[in-house]
Amino acid sequence: MEQYLHSTLTWLITTIIIIAIWDAIWKLIAMWKAARNNHLAWFICIAIFNTIGILPIIYILTQRKNNNTQSEKP
Q: pTM value?
């Protein structure tokens, strides 16, 4: 029983660390892009809400289209 608890706890801690790293990477990328594009509301929302990378991914995907059209204008 003790071995089962130990292996379960190890698996749980490893999973939490992987999710935290995943979230931190996406959050940093999205916050950097939001700050660069002067999107204060997005920056604040991404900084406050922990969504396991979902909100930063949504921001990056939705703003990618806007940035491409802005950069093509003379």
A: 0.71
